Amino acid sequence: MINAEYPLIDISDFGVVSCGDDCGPLAKFIEGNHLEIVEVKDGFADFLGKYKIPLHKMIGVIGVAPENESVPCGTPGRHGGNMDNTKIAKGATLYLPVFHDGAYFGCGDVHACMGDGEIMVSGIEIGAVVSVRLTVLKGVSIDNPRLEDAENIYTIASSEDIEKAMQAGFSTASSNVRSLGFGAGMGLPNMKKNSDTMDIETTLGVGTTVTMTVNI
Fold first, then answer.
1. Residue 122, C-beta contacts closer than 8 angstroms, at least 6 positions apart
2. What is the pLDDT of residues 39-72, one digit of tens each?
3. How far apart are CA 59 and CA 73, in angstroms?
4. Do 125 and 17 touch, CB atoms closer than 8 A?
């Protein structure tokens, strides 16, 4: 297992927002493709010259090489990938399982700010330089990405099968945890019951990511 800490995320002065008639659940309300250049200045994104949006710099795609065959970087999973979690930002620590020697860690898809998911498949996409501190934690393993910040601990799980996740008797616990008598019945109903907040983001053709928050 490795952990990744983010002491610094430097972004460019301009970002891009795009939408189109073939992207996201609101695509049917869009005609053609649209792109907007967004100036970033003094802690805000200036959108359309009308709206000042506070910056919240975060990393959309981050992870290690997947366990089996290669996958597009837009696919989330146990390896991390395109989790698009707004909590993956300066000051946070992300824990990732490692499946191969060297891990093959990488990150990108930085946003100046983004809502809870990309309903039109775009936040404010922006160029960035990210400083990451990696630490190898030997003798420790996890099944899915974990995240910590100053206030909360999060566990992140992604799957193409939301029906399975909805079953109250379905367990996301690892085999060693189940051997200790824990983890049975961790479907979405029980996950929500036993966490302080739970967010579900789903993208057609990509999969569903569930983020649970436990307040410290």
1. 16, 17, 18, 19, 23
2. 999 999 999 999 999 999 999 999 999 999 899 8
3. 13
4. yes
For 144-167, give the DSSP string.
Answer: S-EEE-SSEEEEEEEES-HHHHT-
Say if CB 49 and CB 61 are below 8 A apart.
Answer: no
Instruction: Kindly list the distances between the CA atom of residue 135 and the CA atoms of 113, 117, 183, 208, 215, in Å, as whole numbers in the listed order.
Output: 27, 28, 28, 28, 24
User: Measured between alpha carbons, how far is 74 from 9 in angstroms, rounded to an integer?
Assistant: 21
Choose among 193, 13, 5: nearest CA to 107: 5
* In contact, 76 and 207? CB cutoff 8 Å: yes
Asked whether 57 and 11 are in contact (CB, 8 A), the reply is: yes
b/e per residue 176-208 (b: at least 16 CB within 10 A): eeeeeeeeeebbbebbeeebeeebebebeebbb
| Domain residue extents for the chain | 2-215
pLDDT for residue 21 is more than 70: yes
What's this model's pTM, rounded to 2 decimal places?
Answer: 0.75
Cβ atoms within 10 Å, residue 70 = 8
